[in-house]
User: What shape does this take?
Amino acid sequence: MEYFMNVYYVYTKFAPTDLYPVQYGEENCRRGHAFGPCIRSNYLLHYVYCGKGIFRADGREYELSRGQMFLIKPGQLTYYKADDDEPWLYRWIELNGSIAYRFFSTLCKKYDGQVFSDDEDMSVGRALLDIVESESMSFERAMVKLWEFFSAFSELPENGEILSSQEHIKKAESFIKINIHKKITVSDVAKYVGIDRSYLSRLFREIKHVSPQQYILSMKMDIAAGYMKNSDISIKEAAQSVGYYDSHVFNKAFKNRFNVSPSEWREKKIWNKFII
Assistant: This one.
């Protein structure tokens, strides 16, 4: 295949900080084509579609071939070179922002390095190809495709390290907050986190020093109490907003949490004594 290179840039008049694509492209490299050692200012992910080559970063050297990708971090000195006999065809995307930082930091930790392998369906490769084959496009359209690209990483093989206890708890807390308006069971939380209910209970007792059920109830009551600071929201409305449609059950749960009834809480403005 003959040598070619195509580069497309993404421009926006806004000043995004959370996540923004900079440019993307493709190159069918010449034999032995090398880049670096040099430093880049953004995240740059290369995906190998055919051929092979090497990538060096932080004192480690990786040999890559079809279906693999390598990540360059901002401010990092790196070097990469196409094979002398089978030079690679790769496509890349350059991006930055706080979301990109968190996303790639998690990915590198999970796979213990900056080289990742795609799944059998080449989900990530197809998502990146879709971006590059779209050629020049608006910032808004590029963002849509970028999120689809991120989503493709969820299909990667689970060969990284398992979540830590703290990460399990954070995931559980996130689920509870999102579903605070529903009737949440401990089994619901355990299923979402992906661990056994008894193990989830043990983690909550070790880290939060309460059972998952106690944690759910406390969060519901704290949020309901916060709602009742607003005089335009009735006690019934506050209760329903945290999944309680039986006033007797809500009043009992609230009193167990704050040692006063919801009406006393509101009438006497007792919330000044609590941090919620």
User: Anything to note?
Assistant: The domain at 165-273 is CATH 1.10.10.60 (Arc Repressor Mutant, subunit A). The two ends are 65 Å apart (CA to CA). The chain is about 40% helix and 25% strand.
